[in-house]
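Standup, Tuesday
Yesterday: got the pipeline producing structure tokens again.
Today: sanity-check two examples.
Blockers: none.

Example 1:
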Amino acid sequence: MFTLWSICSALYLYALVSEAVTTIKPLNLEVLAGENAVFQCNTDQNETASWQWFKNLRIPVATENGYVSEGYSMTVSMGTSELTKYNTTIEDDQTQYHCHYISDSSHAYLTVTSRLDVIYPLCGTNTTSVNSDKTVLISCSAKEGNQKPELQWYRNGVKLTEQVDLFDGKSSYFDEITYILTIDDEETVFMCKAEGPAADENQSCQLQLRVPPHVYIISNATSFTSGGSLFLTCKTMSPWKITDYIWTINNELLIFSELKYILKNDGRNIEIFDHHYNCNIFIRCDVTTSSGLVGNDTIELKYEDKTSNDSNDLPITLILCLSFCMFFLGLCIGILVKFSKVLKSFRSVFINKTKSDQNGSENQDTSTAEPCYQNTIIENDRTISGEMTYSGLVPTTPSIYTEVNQIKVNE
């Protein structure tokens, strides 16, 4: 059974505890990584007791005249105790502390922040669709920093719609927006700002969309002849306002006061009449925006010389003429050959008839001719006897037969 003394002692202690007030400050302490964190506890009790410090509810950190964890120190004075955590790290972030002196104090929280590196945030942009779709993707990224700063976009100083930062699952995070451009955004300044305890007040990055217009020339022909006409269009793709079109041919500025050039649709179209270019020409169109951005395109038109075309046709014409002449000549030669054969046939008939007539005459002349002579020819000391007959041939030169007549006649 409890004695009267024990009961009284318990009641006394309860009265002390119920009346004891132990406070801790600050209740929320924020320090940068590497700095020291100091908490202080006070009590209004004069009773003798010992101080104790705990973290995360019941983990002992330090005890008066007793245990002190590594990295901590504890001091005690009249009704006051201080706990110091040296060289805080990110691992110490959101640690909970409280003290005990007869009674427990409230719970205080330690927040440890780390500065965002001065190179962050980083601004980036994808401008591939600026001219075609009049949109741009702008992105802002950062790495580390505790607590992670919020990345926020501004357009000419005005905050854009709130965007939730995206994380890569590690220490990097970013914010990106697909922004639809208007004609007023040609000189717009986009700014991404890191906002939060880990960032400096003016820690930001900026970008400006200096994207020149996309230009291409459309021509009604790819080649031309001297004295003809050309019609060309300078097409542009850009969200910006186009203020000027400048045309040049072979690096010479076109003078539109001349009658052979006509400019239409604020310079987008040009028509060239009765030109006398006799070589390939390079036509260029330069386009300028209101802020001075310049885009251009150049095309080459090939010159076709009709005279050279005619001269190129000359060998073909000559070949055709020569072929025709050769054919005609061959035809004529064939006809002549056939005619000569016919003529030769008639001639042979005529000659045969003439010979037959001559043979008849010779037969008639034989009756009046001189009688045949018998002669002997001496050859190589031999005597050859023979007869020589002259049929119808009357010697015109007597000397021919003189030697013959002198030959001795053998009986």
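Example 2:
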Amino acid sequence: LKSLRTRMRECGVVHQFRKFQSIFAIGQKMAGSESLQATASNVLQRDLRERVSSSRLLVVGAGGIGCELLKNLVLTEFASIDVIDLDTIDVSNLNRQFLFQKKHVGRSKAEVAKETCLRFNPNACITAYYDSVFSPTYDVEFFKKFDLVLNALDNRMARNHVNRMCLAADVPLIESGSAGYLGQVTVIKKGESECYECQPKPRQKTFPGCTIRNTPSEPIHCIVWAKHLFNQLFGEADPDTDVSPDTEDPEAAGDAGKSALRKNSGNSTIERVTTRSWAETQNYHPVRLFTKLFHDDIEYLLSMGKLWEKRRRPVPLTWSDLPEEDGGGSGGLLRDQRVWSVRECGGVFTACIDNLRAQKAACSDLELVWDKDDNVCMDFVTAAANLRAHIFGIPLKSRFDVKSMAGNIIPAIATTNAVIAGLIVMEALKLLDGRLEDCKTVSHNPRDVTLSVLCCNVFNRHT
């Protein structure tokens, strides 16, 4: 126990700060160099140092882990680095992605990361790509140019793609990720280890389709419905996630829905076709879409009498008579923190429809991809989810809350990213030194004493 306390003190913030001050002082006194990266020459053996300086790395992602990783790489004297990232810098990034400053907001993460890292090591050659790794430009031949690929991504789809490209190009991949205080680093080498997709990943929490379509009772149900709606209208449509009322709901057996069809026999807006097909026939007219989704489809649901025997009945919305009362937030709050009124949600919804329709038209045959960091996408989901929540008597949520729930966001911890980035470099050095057998999957979990000490041991063994 005494040894563990000592180890914890050594990993503390004050100790690390003092250690940094000492290293910095040594670096300042070193003859012929004013760069911190010069200390790497005193740590790595000559053969490994030569391989480090001659190797070419691809870093995919310049966000939380990516910033720490790029800094580590240039200070370790990696001379040739390519970095790909499609994101731009947001104010919310500044508290943990230290390569960026307020003046950089709105600029490419990859390009700014390059500029900042060159200040750490002006001798490094960094190529930045403000682009998507899914672009056909980055094919198998592109990946074959690199000795190592280092992932610093935050979504499974991109991880799967890079994993497959590295397998096809036969290039070692170091996969990483963090979620709050948890993190993991693993080495993937074709024919030597399992790949990223060999083991099934935990599935995200799902909900019965009939609950999403017919009987939402929680804000998350409405948010999932709104994300499905985005894909049905503008993204990759999945018939299993159509947002139209579900007449196959086991609770809606019998003659459910027939009364609505008879009542609206002269109204062509209630039609058993897919949401995408119907929207295209209406040329994505915002008010008509609003009326179908938040009035006609709700009337159809109300005709399913059995659904509402023990539930609160939904109240359809009419475009010309939207409630004006405040959504429950203070006018002094930021837009993201304030709960929008129903009328404001209606206005945002129709404006987003126009914007997204124009984007889709400009993309020709390509589908739009929902992104929690895209303002229009988030506005659309927030407005649609809150309109549906109001109909079903569910509390409305602020844009900030919707983003946290829709993106399954776990607050990012800067120190976790720093630990993971350090572990990535350690595994990269092992690979370049030909010690594949020493590579291992390392998990970081401060709540598990064993794993925490393991991470500390990895660092101490190489420092």
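Quick observation on example 2: Strands lie at 56-60, 80-84, 125-129, 148-151, 173-179, 182-188, 442-444. The first strand starts at residue 56 and ends at 60.
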